Amino acid sequence: MGFVGTCCRFAGAVAVIPIAVIIAVMLETPTVTKLDSKAVEGLSKAPKSGGSYSDATEASPTGDPQAPRMGSGIMFDKIAFVYDSTNKWMSLGLDQHWRKTMVQECLRLERDDKVLDLATGTADVSLLVGERLKQLGDGVAAPESVLGVDPSTEMLRRGVSKVDNKGLTGVVRLVKGDAQDLSSIQGVDAAGAVSEPTSGAADESIDKISMSFGIRNVPNRGSALDEMRRVLRRRPSSRVCILEFSLPDGEAPLAKLARLFITRVVPIIGQIATLGSGSEEYDYLERSILRFPKPMDFAAELTSAGLPVESITSFAYGAVNLYAATPAA
Question: H or E segment at 253?
C-alpha cells in the first residue's frame, strides 16, 4: 500500500476515536492500585525474574540473521529523527504528563540524589530530573547527578543537544550502555562520536532509577531488573519507577477504544511520520505492547527480582502503567 493509502487508513482509524474519548483520556483521574505487604508477599512467590525473556529478542522482519533485532539500539537509531514527534502523536500529547508524574510523584527526589535514567532516549526524563534537582538545590545540582543510559547513539546525540540547550551540561550525563549490564558505558557527544568504554554504575551507587517505555525492549528483563537491584542503594528512600505501555483489558467502551488505538492507529502514525521508512519498526513497537505482561504479572517480576512494588498507577484506561518499587531489605 502506498503512502496516500496509508494516510487514508490513518484518517479512517482516527475517525473511530471520538473527540469525546480523547478529552476523557486527557481529563482522566489515574487509577492507583496500592499493594500491601500481603500482596507483595504473594508476588514474591512468582517465578524468579532471571528467566523473564522479553519479545525484544524478535529477529529482523526481513529474516536476515545479520540484520539488527527489533527493539535494539540500531533499530532506534533508524527512527530517532521522528521519535519525539511520534511520541506526542501516539500518546495524544500526554507522554510528557506521564513522565512528569513519574518524576514529581514517584521518584520522590531529594537534593543530593544520584539518579539513573534507563532507556533515556532523547533525554526527556533526564532533563526533568536535572531541572528538579536544581530546584531542590536552590539553582545548583551536583555534577553528574543524572546518568542517562541508552543503547541508541542517534537518540543520545539528540539528547545531548537538548541537555546543552537546557543548560544542564555537567548535571546530566548521557551515555551509551545496556540495561542488562551497567558495568561498562560509553560517552556520546552532540556529533554522535562514541568514546572508549569506561566503568559504569557501581554496586549500591544510585538513589533513584527511572525507566520510561523501554523495559519491554530489553531482551532479558530479568537481567535488567537484577542490575537495577545491584546498583540501587539499600535505603528506605531509594526508589525504582518504571513507565510502560500495556494492552488494556476489560469490556468497558473506553478500554476497547484504547486497545483499538494501540493496535490500529499507532503503527499507521509511525508509518506516516517516517514516510514509510520506519513502518517495520513501528509495527514491532505495536507488537511489543501487545506481548508485554499484564500489570500484576510485571509487578511479580519486579518483586521476584528484589524490587517489591508498592503501587501501580494506571493512565489512559490501562494503556500506560507506572510501577513504583523499592529495594527489598
Answer: helix 253-260
109: which DSSP letter?
-
Residue 160, SS3?
A: helix
pTM as predicted? 0.85
The pair phi, psi for residue 123, each rounded to 5°, is 80, 20
Q: How far apart are CA 4 and CA 7, in angstroms?
A: 5
Strand partners, 42: none
Name the DSSP letter for residue 57. G
C-alpha cell at 223: 537481567
Q: State how beta strands 172-178 and 181-187 pair.
A: antiparallel
Domains of the chain and any CATH numbers = 3-40+73-325 (3.40.50.150)
Write the pLDDT tens digit of every residue in 171-186: 999 999 999 999 999 9
Torsion sign, CA atoms 299, 303, 307, 308: positive
